[in-house]
Amino acid sequence: MPTVTSNASSSPSPLIIPRAEHGISRALISENALKVLYRLKESGYEAYLVGGGVRDLLLGREPKDFDVATNARPEEVRSLFRNCRLIGRRFRLAHVRFGREIIEVATFRAPHDVADNDKAAALTADGLILRDNVYGTLEQDAWRRDFTVNALYYNIRDFSVLDHTGGLADLKAGVLRLIGDPERRYREDPVRMLRAIRFAAKLGFRIEPDTEAPIFELGRCLGEIAPARLFDEVLKLFQGGVAVETFEMLRHYGLFKPMFPLTEAALAKETQGFPRTFIARALANTDRRIQENKPVTPAFLFAALLWEPVRQRKADLVRAGTDEIPALHAAAGEVISDQQKHVSIPKRFSIPMREIWTMQPRFVQRFPKRVERFLAHPRFRAAYDFMCLRAEVGEVDEKLAEWWTRIQETDDAGRQQMMRRANAGSGARKRRRRPRKRKSPVNKGTT
Ligand code: ATP
Ligand code: MG
User: Fold this and answer.
1) Pairing verdict, β 67-70 and 101-107
2) Is position 65 annotated as part of the catalytic site?
3) By three-state DSSP, how is residue 372 classified?
């Protein structure tokens, strides 16, 4: 088994930054994280805040979550907290839950070559880590983390910060540097490539050249990652508030294709900037919502990312003689089942995603009874937002989008009037009597 770095044990003593010389104050750390740190300390264990929490606080940013590192074994952590669950087989750790907040507590890890059995550690022939549960010291733990800026430890005993890997200098310089040999570290865990992009985009950091170079080659290794894990990573990538930039970077480094091959193929066929414009707008929309602290649903995000393959597939089916609506349903089904092989989308998101797509034709049909029902549909709002995006890129008539905006804002009487006007002269009421072929929508717009 390879070690994380050969010089790990011979490295010089760490840089210790005393409390007076850094900006991390306990007032900035979540109360729950402090509770966990103190409880571990009082039980005689070492306890440190590590990872994004320390990194972001040193940068003056608000951390997304707090991670704790300790020499207590997962079972020992569990026995200290009632609200604690052990998770993960590949990387076993403790989740201590406080309402909606989860504090992740990881036991210090050692390099694999100190494993005395292969139950704790396992690597494939290609160097992919299957299990990473060999416990060690803080120093060993520092060297097997991903980036130097993620390997800073805040000690709850004296409030100092410990730096074994040069993370503080990189943090000051705005550099993202993988610890150890980048190629080997990416092969061990290809998700580290996605993490490089995520942190570079989020922090505005430069990816150090040796850390950057292997990514172009190794992107295909993402195919080895479980689709369920990639789903979590995709959410982190696109819900971090910088989705537009992240998307461009993922494509630049060849990391988008292994996760969304159908979308990448559709993008390759793009004409006049479309569908890139559509995705970029959807992502800009997501970024805006996150900035405004509004919820963003994964269903909408995936609906946008996969819309172009659905549209193209549907068009193929229609050309081959299938009717519009069945073609849309069939295309949606095919795209979903293919996508699941790469990034799996849990049913609770794939079902509403499919609805967002299959509700699109209903914006074109505006029969009075159906409009009322449609407006009351639990997924109406998401489908409407999606339709507005399509209107922005010229895929749906702008007037139709405006009509749907207005009808939501008006009262009952106004609604009736709008529907009468929309239908007047359109032939909508006579539609049922006309031959099927001539059933034209009230307004222009395609699905
Ligand atoms: P954020 O929580 O803001 O997304 P983070 O750096 O805290 O960023 P987490 O996923 O919470 O990221 O992981 C916590 C820490 O665990 C990281 O900072 C890093 O030290 C370590 N870590 C996470 N994933 C890996 C990995 N794949 N390989 C090596 N170390 C990792
Ligand atoms: Mg974190």
Assistant:
1) parallel
2) yes
3) helix
For the chain, domains (ranges, CATH) are 8-183 (3.30.460.10), 278-425 (1.10.3090.10)
Q: 345: CA distance to ligand 2 center in Å?
A: 23
Structure tokens at 426: 């359109």
Residue 6's identity, in one-letter code, is: S
Q: What pLDDT is attached to residue 118? A: 63
> pTM to 2 decimals?
0.89
Other beta carbons within 10 Å of 150: 22
Q: In this predicted model, what pLDDT tens digit does every residue of 338-354 receive, in sequence order?
A: 999 999 999 999 999 99
Q: Which tens digit of pLDDT belongs to each residue from 16-37?
A: 999 999 999 999 999 999 999 9
Binding-site residues, ligand 1, Cβ < 6 A: 51-52, 64-65, 67, 145-146, 150-151, 189, 191-192
Q: CB under 8 Å to 273, separation ≥6 — which residues?
A: none
- Mind listing the pLDDT tens digit for each residue in 108-139? 998 876 555 666 777 787 788 777 788 999 99
Burial of 274 (0-12, 13-18, 19+ CB in 10 A): middle
* Residues near ion ligand 2 (Cβ under 5 Å): 51-52, 65, 67
What is the Cα 270 distance to its own chain's centre?
A: 24
In this predicted structure, the answer to whether residue 178 has a pLDDT above a threshold of 70 is yes
